[in-house]
Amino acid sequence: MTSIKERILTLRELMRDRGWDAAVISGSDPHSNEYLPDHWNARRWISGFTGSFGTVVVTAGHAGLWTDTRYFIQATAQLEGSGIELHKLRVPEAVDYPEWLATNLPKGALVGIDGTCMSLSEVKALEAALAPIEAKVESVADYLDAIWTERPGLPEAPVFVLEDKYAGESAADKLAFVRERMKACGASRLLMDRLDCVGWTLNIRGGDIPYFPVAIAYLLVGPEDATLFIDPAKIRPEVEDYLKGLKVSVAPYGEILTVLAALRKEDRLCVDAGSINYGAWKTASESCSVMEMPCPVIGRKAVKNPVEIEGCRRAYIKDGVALTLFFHWIESRMAEGCRISEIEAASKLTALRAEQEDNIGESFATISAYGKNAALPHYSATEQDYSFLEPRGLYLVDSGGHYLHGTTDITRTIPLGPTTELEREDYTLVLKAMIALSRAVFLQGTIGSQLDMLCRQPLWKTRRNFGHGTGHGIGHVLSVHEGPQDIRHTIRSLAPIESGMITSNEPGMYREGLHGVRHENAILARECGSNEFGAWLDFETLTCCYFDTTPLVKELLSPEDIDWIKGYNSWVYESLKDLLPPDTREWLKRKTSFHTT
Amino acid sequence: MTSIKERILTLRELMRDRGWDAAVISGSDPHSNEYLPDHWNARRWISGFTGSFGTVVVTAGHAGLWTDTRYFIQATAQLEGSGIELHKLRVPEAVDYPEWLATNLPKGALVGIDGTCMSLSEVKALEAALAPIEAKVESVADYLDAIWTERPGLPEAPVFVLEDKYAGESAADKLAFVRERMKACGASRLLMDRLDCVGWTLNIRGGDIPYFPVAIAYLLVGPEDATLFIDPAKIRPEVEDYLKGLKVSVAPYGEILTVLAALRKEDRLCVDAGSINYGAWKTASESCSVMEMPCPVIGRKAVKNPVEIEGCRRAYIKDGVALTLFFHWIESRMAEGCRISEIEAASKLTALRAEQEDNIGESFATISAYGKNAALPHYSATEQDYSFLEPRGLYLVDSGGHYLHGTTDITRTIPLGPTTELEREDYTLVLKAMIALSRAVFLQGTIGSQLDMLCRQPLWKTRRNFGHGTGHGIGHVLSVHEGPQDIRHTIRSLAPIESGMITSNEPGMYREGLHGVRHENAILARECGSNEFGAWLDFETLTCCYFDTTPLVKELLSPEDIDWIKGYNSWVYESLKDLLPPDTREWLKRKTSFHTT
């Protein structure tokens, strides 16, 4: 194993040979995945940084990692001694790496990238930023191969079919929908590069990516048939028959560029400029007419059908059972004086969730964070570095599961004993923020970044804020983070919140060195009547797990807040009571009654 | 005087001669003015519709007016018998005129426009909508001249200089700022086409447009000098000397296209694609290199300097005096049994405002609307059609003034006697909405369409809404409606609300045939501290006029709402008491104490 410093030195040699003034390692892959197969995790390899967001840039005299508020503490720790400097994003006066390059490179510089592992939009933005200094971008696929000697191969998990009783809509109907959209814009081909779009369209799932039950593949849809570019070893005979029934043929994954290069001039190919990698786009652009438009599947799959919605409701009931058993277990064990580590707690929760019928794994790595560790919103306890739960302060657990019928994402923060005044204030105000969004009523056409304001205002009134988004779409047995809706302060998406969309509602408060609080429910947007002013929507809360009321500061809550909490907790009790063993049921009865300290 | 029907028939003849399948009359002018000089008010001439927003489209078989919710009632009345059909915008399933044309015209159709009276962006959007049916746009300047025989000439009001003691920044400094921005993007010329930008930059004002104290002109800024294209008769010798001191020469208004056509290939001209008319853009594009960027003055003039802010505070105090005298007068006169018409009331208010020192006119036509007339948000009483105030229900008055030191915009809705339950509910919820925005605390970077949600939520919770924006920027002795900030539900502007911006806060509720409520204050965004989460802003309310508390439904208000109202009303009393005659002072004392019915 080479050290980070050695890797950067070797990269600089490679850059010298190629005549590059800078190299960009985007930490992305050909499919814009959030969690990367190790094969593509070049950012981690070159820097040692394990967070899910960031870009590494190396020049002759500087090596830097650009990442955002979520990872400042973690990155500072992981970069120590590497010689790589942390560049903070999403803070006042943040300078992103393209602007940094434009300021720090000489006129006419050459910047090396691997275009197959960067999105078209990112490379375009980079080129635009470099234009004033007349610097150019050179894309070389897999350029790190020359120095990354121990690079892992691609995963090989088998594909399975998600039955219609779980998916709620047949793949044939979904393909018909895609072709209808292609026809409407005069396209003869559509390239699907997002793995969840491919999985959703064909009702297939896989196991190639941690926490994301999909297979690494491209889908090229034509007017009558389609081709799935995938390692054929992953397709068992019954899946091959299923695909044949849909007129979907299978081709090796690596052939996608060859097939794109062989398209004819008169072909009109739809690609999604928001996700397609620069390599695929460039190849297709040189052979045929490329039309850029958002993948039609994104908006459609975000609006869950009744079968998916009912499946998610059931999934949250199962999650509620697992979490109730989990919190009861923690309390009982600690009362017995047992020591529980963050890692043991996370494993226990994983096991309890796995016991639920139809559970097929976790939807992301559980965040099990006690005390000051919870001040890192994306904290990850490791065998080398973890804490024990103590009978005081707050414990935060953010976890989720995939069930065959739905995917969950839930965070609860619970008191383990006495709490400080600041902990109680933060706990209360974050819950108040979550309730404000839960109770929103809004007209059709309202976007997430508008609803975000309702959630932030209770925190902002006391000059508090959290540095992450408020809510993301949650896929159905797909990615736990999906678009197009996005509840956040910075406007990234103009997609309205539509009836049938399931979104997380997860405000937080983080105090470095002290504590962290996050309360997260999943909320389903639904119609709630029309009148002369338009069509109205509100939210149904799907998540079914109590909020501990003991840390609440009653003076900070309105009568409406208190009514909401009481109503929610009694609904939780009524929904779960028959699914719990008697002692846990009694315990939950007490937990769901309203009493503040 | 020809009738509307005759005018449309003549237009159809002209269309036949030109081979046009449709003609668009945009109701705009070369400078994107909201209030048009009669010379350019072609929409009113062709349709009889007097509203401030709309487009007329005529084809061989159809004539239509597209306008929005504000004008549905008024347009329906004014179009009656004209054969022109109303097309509603900003309602579910609204179809704007470009899409309507694309659906209703034959393939390859020709659409006639006057490009000098349409913005570049509007013509581009029209062309884009027509592309699928391969229809083309043909622009002919002043094509209506051939049939519009009584077309009025251009106004001729003299220009005056707004002294630095009012403007707070010299024109020399403002020109230096513009040139700095030009330099930063490598431009050799900048064309300013918005009349308020021209007026702000040179610290000059005029009287060409009703309620908008500017002169019709273009300003072409070069690296060292500039040219003002304006009717030279408007420039008195002392103003000419002032301009000479700024190295600004004067050229006839009509020469702008000639000068643009004479620019050289190597010239780099900045134009604002958001406002420039298609005619000027096309001329310049054919002679030189055109760079499209927002006029740098827009964002700068929206952030008021300390002299402007203090001037606005003083203006709202004067407005408060005028309105208090006005409401006292109404109550006294009605108590005496006198009949007051909406028009008499408006005139009285105009006179009271005019008595205030440094008042130079109204900032828009006063809306004086009693009872059901107030259900039209932009109602205008006319000599032919007006109501008398009755001792029951609600009276709404929306008015504003220009003072040499600042511009105002204020709406109050007052009870004239007993009110209905629905009136009281609407009155209360609209005030609650206005208070919610007034009390907002927000991080730097927050845009108006996010803050809008705080204002709407109290109304939305009871499934109520209003169909207009919540808040617009207010110019300084310029347009009462200015950008870039915009507090509204539909996202039109991504400009954050910055410290120093003055914006209206004017939610409403309109019940056709019953009543209308609007409460409007002007709010100044200001810094309120920084901490680890960023820089915080809140609002200072500038408007200084009491809210009548008698119609308030106490159960709909939170303790915080009631505190706000009490605090506001006592601030109003303290600010105005020494400026009022004794009887009005005593009367205001009673009005500003909190008592609900």
Task: Walk me through this protein's architecture.
2 copies of one chain form a homodimer. Chain A is globular. In chain A, helix 4 (97-104) runs parallel beside helix 5 (120-130), helix 13 crosses helix 14 (342-354) and helix 15 packs antiparallel against helix 16 (448-460). In chain A, a hairpin with a 4-residue loop joins strand 10 (218-221) and strand 11. With 597 residues, the first copy, chain A, is an alpha+beta fold. Helix content of chain A is 35%, strand content 21%. Chain A has a 6-stranded mixed sheet with strand order 4-3-2-1-5-6, with helices on both faces. Chain A has a 6-stranded mixed sheet with strand order 12-11-10-8-13-14, with helices on both faces. A 4-stranded antiparallel sheet of chain A has the order 21-28-27-24. The interface between A and B is medium-sized, with 34 and 34 residues.
